[in-house]
Amino acid sequence: MAHNSPIYIRIQDKIREGIADGVWKPGERLPSENELANQFSTTRATVVHAMQGLLSDGLIDRIRGKGTFVKASPIVTQVRTQELGFFEKDLEGSNLTVEYRLLEFAPAPLTPALRKNLQLGEKAKIYRLMRLRIVNGKPLALEIRYLEASLAVSLSHEKLAVMAIQPLIEQQLNVKIGTIHNQVRVTLPGTEIASVLEIKKARPVMVRRHTCLAQDQTPVLWGETFYREEYEIQYSSYRGK
């Protein structure tokens, strides 16, 4: 955690790490705003600002008169499919065009959560990939993804500007994706995400958190994609024989 970061960012990082490391479990009450203000030698207003960011990210819930809590574990339903797919493949045959705007592809700090999700050692290095997905000339989704530096440096910046990430990994890294784990939730965007997607902060976004595993079940990529509210997912369920 960088000590020259703004205090509200340091408060957010401390709480994020505590949640990721299990210091505070789902549904558990967090320290009060006054307690955090004393701990970080700052004002209650700064703590409120920090907590608002965590609330927008869907990490916490605030209950009037009771306090602030780690967001409870969601009710999960599993949708099983027989084929690995991705957004661009699903659009094949449509008259929609998909473009990318590469916003960032650079080394990033290795947080405890990223180390856990990518199953990396403490000294590992990672890259962060941020791309804006544009459909028919309009921003639709913001991709924020992480992968180990030894893999990232082999990816072409030119290809990152024109290709979906799954086929790009398979073609350029010769790594066959065997499994993709997905989690979907709805939240309110922070200032940066709302600005990139050209929406108001009061408009909800759908977030798809995903982990791509190689055929030997080694994590290759972890990240989140934030979709504008007009995007929807359709799927069908079938009765087994």
UniProtKB/TrEMBL annotation:
Q: Does the keyword Transcription regulation apply?
A: yes
Which keywords has UniProt assigned to this entry? DNA-binding, Transcription, Transcription regulation
Pfam families reported in the protein's UniProt record: GntR, UTRA
CDD domains, per the entry: WHTH_GntR (cd07377)
A single Gene Ontology MF term assigned here is: DNA binding
- Domain HTH gntR-type, by residue range, is 5-73
Biological process (GO), any one: negative regulation of DNA-templated transcription
Is Transcription tagged as a keyword? yes
SUPFAM superfamilies annotated for this entry?
Answer: Chorismate lyase-like, Winged helix' DNA-binding domain
- Name the domain of life this protein comes from: Bacteria
Q: What is this protein called?
A: GntR family transcriptional regulator
Higher taxonomy = Bacteria, Pseudomonadati, Pseudomonadota, Gammaproteobacteria, Enterobacterales
